[in-house]
């Protein structure tokens, strides 16, 4: 079997790291991300102390994409403030669009992937959230 590349490989990585998270099913690079749970699940997979995943609800798209986590930062802001990943998306974008822009989703996911899994990714070297001094990530 040949090695997956590009968007298919990114989608497969997303499926792998979100597996077991309630109400997350990665089927595509648009509607699978709209409710925000998959973004939260990726961050939670690597850094569970940054996102209180159990407090999220599939029905509350705005809250999931702009959720309060343990450190009281909105979800997209967690990646920006704690991980240094620019917030390319906003909660309002996800609420207003029935089908979010796949290129924006893929670009943002690529940044998360490079951070957590890339050979030169900051997480691979060492990660200590700015708001935490002990445990986790």
Q: What is the CA-atom radius of gyration, in angstroms?
A: 14 Å
Number of strands: 0
Number of helices: 7
Q: Tell me about the biggest sheet?
A: none
The structural class is mainly alpha
Arithmetic mean of pLDDT: 77
Helix and strand pattern: HHHHHHH
Q: Flag low-confidence runs.
A: 67-73, 128-136
- Portion in beta strands: under 5%
The CA-CA distance between the termini, in Å, is: 33 Å
- Oligomeric state of the chains? single chain
Helix content, binned percent: 40-55%
Silhouette: globular
Organism: Cordylochernes scorpioides
Protein name: MICALL1
Domain Calponin-homology (CH): 4-117
Characterise the protein shown here.
- This is MICALL1.
- It comes from Cordylochernes scorpioides.
- Residues 4-117 form the Calponin-homology (CH) domain.
- It holds the Pfam family CH.
- The structure is a single chain.
- 45% of the residues lie in helices and 0% in strands.
- Mean pLDDT is 77; it is low at 67-73 and 128-136.
- It has 7 helices and no strands.
- It has helices spanning 6-18, 37-46, 61-65, 75-83, 91-96, 102-116, 122-125.
- It is an all-alpha fold and 137 residues long.
